[in-house]
Amino acid sequence: MTTRPVRPLLAAVAVLGALAACGGSSGDAAPAGDEGDGPEGAVTVFAAASLTDAFADVAAAFEDEHPGVTVELSFAGSPSLREQVLEGAPADVVATADEGVMADLVDEGAVGEPVVFATNRLQLAVPAGNPADVTGLDDLARDELLVGLCAEGVPCGELARRVLADAGVTPAPDTEEPDVRALLAKIEAGELDAGLVYATDVQAAGGAAEGIDVPAGEAGTTRYPIATVAGAPHPDAAAAFVAFVASPAGRDVLAGHGFGPP
Amino acid sequence: MSRAAPRPGRRAARARPPWALVPLAALAVGFLVLPLVALLQRAPWSDLAELVRRPIVTDALRLSLVSAAAATGLSLLCGVPLAWVLARSRLPGLSVLRALATLPVVLPPVVGGAALLFAFGRRGLVGEPLEDATGFVLPFTIWGVIAANTFVALPFLVLTVESGLRAVDTRYEEAAATLGAGRWTVLRRVTLPQAAPSIVAGAVLCFARALGEFGATVTFAGNLQGRTQTMPLAVFVALESDREAAIALSLVLVAVSLAVLVPLRDRWLRA
Amino acid sequence: MLRAEVDVRLPDLHLQLDLRVDDGEVVALLGPNGAGKTTALRAIAGLRPLDAGRIELDGRVLDEPAAGTFVPPEQRSVGVVFQDHLLFPHLTALENVAFGLRARGVRRREARAAAQAWLDRMGLADVAGARPRTLSGGEAQRVALARALAVEPRLLLLDEPLAALDAGTRVRVRADLRRHLAAFPGGRLLVTHDPLDAIVLADRLVILERGRVTQTGTPAEVTARPASRYVAQLVGINLLFGTAAGERTVRLDTGGELTLADALPAAEVAIALRPQAIALHTHRPDGSPRNAWPAVVADVEVDRDRVRVSLEGPVHATAEVTPAAVAELDLVPGARVWASAKAVDLVAYPR
Q: Measured between alpha carbons, how far is residue A258 from residues A51, A151, A154, A219 in Å?
């Protein structure tokens, strides 16, 4: 399902218009000045670890568009995000790396209507210079290499196992990291010879890691939904943020980090 | 000569705390005990027997006990001599040495794990030549877990034993010397026996700390069931996928820790 | 034989002392607190190195800074009995006494047997299995002595061996100590601030004041001709010489008769009596003192807040009283008084 760019934009305009008409919202707890229209205060965004770098830029762009709002970002593995939101963490927005996790949150009535805003695909990451001469998924079964995967409950881990199963490869992992950024860090440091991470992570690593494409097709792609949290402390700012992320402006920022379109 | 027994009334009066302390103490107890009560309340009692027999639990328990015991053994071997140096020697810069030895106590465990990687990882200061020479790699093995555990738990043993050694009167060591005991004999038969309660207390604290270690372990040794996934790691991972197993694991961890800490008699802690 | 030229610089004291102790001799190093006596003892034991000088035992140099020689305490054959006995608290009395032997490689069983023999000799057989904290002061001190003697050192050092005991125990232990010391073949050096200990236990006194020796000699020589104010005060101890006239009675050379609390050790004895232990009365006292005699005041001397009254009569002694007593009793030279002393305050030893 693809969302046409026009609708989120209209939504954003409608929300902004409504807020301007109200002249200040009731949900903002943070003290803010009276300057300008639009949402004010702080908005707390919980996002999947793989969105770390991209969302930093998205938040900056959002703050440029909405002076008076500050974005506070918190990153964790998607299952941790689920736990935190269900336990009542003070998040306004949640963006996961897994539609299943978001579906759980919807079922619990913890979030509003989710919007898929980006896609990502899996890539085989190796340290710069590829010291172990890794060429493809088969190498992940080699015992003599130090290989890492994301842990089973984590979306990156689920994705990796699906891709490996499809390719008929039985991996010999030496570690199953609880979040993808920790896995990437170990690959960049050269402590691991190879691992399965997102393409965006390889991009974020810059020169410290190289990526090798894997033939994965649909199984190797993951979709990122975002939604406002029910009972959020700052609902207006939350909705604005969600709208921005799904807008062309937001999508441009994300593309710059290697994310695919929704 | 016999010691006169204290009059009962007098002794009771001395033991009662001033009333203002009681509510504060109760607050502390409540704060510490409440999470435990909440954990017990959420426990899946009916499935518990089956849950604790699952491999994810038994593997983690075995790894935790083995690595904590090994870490305690290493800490005793190297920590007691270090404690002796800190307590007895008159080298310059001793306070700096003591600060360094207790650094892991204040350092966030993840930072400790990262530092261990920089030192002993495959690209580390010592780790790289080690791998080149022997092909042996510390991370992702149980030795890595033991190293991480030792790094965070050793200072507890050192601090406890150092204070125990300071409490031993050096005049006894002088008396032993005049009787013909060499330095090693003095240590073995006069100093260490008197410091024994503090050594035991230090070992217990060290074991308990190693048992609960998470940040340094996951950062340095990684996480793999059956090889490096100790109980705290298993709990963390299970929280995401299998809540009930996570709670069962937590209860096992609490039970083991209590079994280790409760026999720690208070007179040993005072030593 | 010990030959020691001790030179030690402490923050507030410079100790310089030449000392010789022959085999078979008991030397007492006597002096006020802070004189450096314990420092001297520790230097001889090897617990504190000399700053200058030389310590030689039986021809072997133990410490000579100029030559760079220093033998650590565990290799000297010097036994020490410490003031607070310092029995190892985690070992029983028997294990304490066996400690030195085992440290020298003697096998456990033999060491324990030898230790038991020592305890039997000291009359401590039934406390062998006891921990030091359950022993009385006198028992602990005797165990400490056994412990030091068990390794058969060439020289025995005793640091204020009776200071930690109460008065009654001290009398008994002093007598025991004299007996046990007599059985030891090597030299014995006793450090004390109590002149009574020195006089009763030693053959020769060395008076140490502020790090320097001010007088040496036999107890009789030192008390007859005190060389310093400190010794003169020490000499304030009354030494009475007499002959045994019963198990506990002594006829003094000056004519009087005194009854003691314990049996006399020999036929010819010297009796020590502190001036403070003599009470003066206007009439013959009834009640507990067993010893009372009529005396004439020979001299009254005021010394700060105390008054020394020298008495003549069947017992020649100096009593020490308060100024109030002087007034009450109208003590002037020539006055007639009654003097009394408790039997337990009289200490007799062989002349």
A: 11, 23, 20, 18
* B17-45: burial string, b at 16+ Cβ within 10 Å, e else: eeeeeeeeeeeeeeeeeeeeeeeeeebee
pLDDT at residue A39, rounded to an integer: 65
Residues of the domain holding C25: 2-233
**C88·B177 Cβ contact <8 A:** no
* CATH numeric code, A6-27+39-119+223-256: 3.40.190.10
Interface test with A, best of B138, B217, B227, B237 (most A CBs within 10 A): B237
More confident residue, A55 or C234: A55
For C295-350, the pLDDT digits (tens) are 999 988 887 788 888 899 888 888 989 888 888 888 889 999 999 998 888 888 77
Report CA-CA distances (Å) from C40 to C16, C50, C66, C96: 9, 9, 18, 26
Give A216→chain B minimum CA distance, Å: 25
Residues B83-103 pLDDT 10s = 999 998 888 888 899 999 889
Is residue B262 classed as helix, strand or coil in its secondary structure? coil
Residue B78 belongs to domain spanning: 67-225
> Are C253 and C229 found together in one domain?
no
CA distance C198 to C193: 8
- Say whether both C170 and C246 belong to one domain: no
Query: In this structure, what CATH number is given to the domain that contains residue C273?
Result: 2.40.50.100
Interface A:B, ≥3 CB–CB pairs < 8 Å: yes
Is B52 contained in some domain?
Answer: no
The DSSP code sequence of C228-251 is SHHHHHHHTSEEEEEEE-SSSEEE
Say whether pLDDT at B77 is over 60.
yes
Flag whether pLDDT at A12 surpasses 70: no
Within this chain, domains A6-27+39-119+223-256 and A121-220 share the same CATH topology: yes
Which one, of A9, A53, A2, A54, lies nearest residue A252 by Cα?
Answer: A54
**pLDDT class of A32 with cuts at 50, 70, 90:** very low
B174–C100 C-beta distance less than 8 A: no
The answer to whether the Cβ–Cβ distance between B140 and A83 falls below 8 Å is no
For residue B176, being part of any structural domain is answered with yes
Confidence of residue A3 (pLDDT cuts 50, 70, 90): very low
C chain contacts of residue B177, beta-carbon cutoff 8 Å: 46-47, 72-74
As a whole number of Å, the end-to-end CA separation of chain A is: 8
Q: Where are the domains of chain A?
A: 6-27+39-119+223-256, 121-220
Q: How many CB pairs under 8 A join A and B?
A: 62
Distances (CA, A) of C175 to C128, C148, C188, C350: 22, 18, 16, 11
Asked if B244 is an interface residue toward chain A (Cβ–Cβ < 8 A), one would say no
Kindly list the residues from chain B whose CB atom is less than 8 angstroms away from the CB atom of residue A152.
237, 241
Report the complex ipTM: 0.76
Tens digit of each residue's pLDDT (9 = 90 or more) over C101-145: 999 989 999 999 999 999 998 888 889 999 999 998 888 999 999
For testing the chain B interface, which of C39, C80, C85, C99 should be mutated: the one with the most B CBs within 10 Å? C99
Give yes or no: residues C252 and C217 share one domain.
Answer: no
Q: Read off the pLDDT of each residue in A97-111 and give the average, rounded to a whole number.
A: 89
**Pick from C233, C251, C266: which residue ends a domain?**
C233
Q: Which H helix or E strand runs over C158?
A: strand C155-159
Q: Is residue B208 domain-resident? A: yes
Of C19, C5, C30, nearest to C222 by C-alpha is C30
Fold topology of A121-220: D-Maltodextrin-Binding Protein; domain 2 (3.40.190)
Q: Are residues C34 and C88 in the same domain?
A: yes
Q: Are C15 and C160 members of one domain? A: yes
Q: Do chains A and C touch (3 or more CB pairs under 8 A)?
A: no
**How near does any CA of chain C get to the CA of B168, in Å?**
11
B248 touches C at CB < 8 Å: no
What is the least distance, in Å, from the CA of B112 to any CA of chain A?
15
